[in-house]
Amino acid sequence: MADLSKHILLCPGQGSQKVGMGRAWAEASSSAAALFRDADTALGFGLSQLCFEGPQEQLDRTDVAQLAIYTVSVACARGLTEKGLLTGAVAAPSDASGLAATAGLSLGEFTALHLAGTLSFEAGLELVRVRGEAMQQAAESVDSSMVALTGADEASASALCEKVLADFDGSEHVLVPANINGPGQIVISGTQEACQRAITMASDEGGKATGLQVAGAFHSRVMAPAAAALESALQRAPLEPPRCPVISNVTGKPHLADVDAIRQRLVEQMTNPVRWLESMQWVGTHLEGQLIELAPGRVLTGLMRRIDRRRPVANCAEPATATGAPN
Known about the structure:
The chain has helices at residues 23-28, 30-43, 47-53, 56-59, 62-82, 108-115, 121-141, 154-166, 192-204, 224-236, 259-269, 276-286, 299-307, and strands spanning 7-11, 99-104, 144-150, 175-182, 185-191, 208-211, 246-247, 290-294, 313-316. By secondary structure, it is an alpha/beta fold. Helix 8 (154-166) packs across helix 9.
């Protein structure tokens, strides 16, 4: 791996889960293995077994996937720290001098805040549990989904949403931009009928729209009940100001040191679009240092290739890849 004297940690979001994730880190690192045991104890069930052995359909549930990804990402960071490849996070949370910044996609923002010293692992795990369960319940209460638009930008995605909603009578339908992931990578979110109409309309106009296999309309007002549940949990959670910049999904810029403002941005994230493109553009403009994608998966590595190919990402999904050159 390249010089990690300054590093920018990228923390995956939901959709990166797969059976077997984290197993190699647990086998390679006693610190990672201990973290999985701590998570199992805190949650009262075998999360580690679900990560390592599945089944995939259970791992894909929002209320399980979010816990699994958060835990695997932190286990990866602890494994990197144990191997001497990462400093300033987890092992020495009072000193984040080795971190240039942290950033996480949606759920990954909680991982990013933990690694920057804002949340303990246990406090983050509890918040992620509440968030995942509430999002699962909200998704089950409304027939809704998400659609990926290839080649679109935020303006064209917003125009498509407005055009679709104009065809409906009343205001019971929802369709909004939900993830601004990168150039030509926009996801919209809404009620099922609106999503289906968007796919048809985009195709009729020569675009490419693909329905996603998700529980529901994340980052839209369909998630308002989940946002309320998370807000209540956040009021009870002990937070500290981050010890390095942590990029907010809502603003695409670093959180302020005000922990109440951090709480508010995390609640807003539930019903507002994830501005990952803007987040990485801010990083590219303001920060130097090695980009590192924590386990699981390679989604953020792929998105960064679209956003700025000049900034290589060291992908650490497996211990073996964590010792090689950035890719």
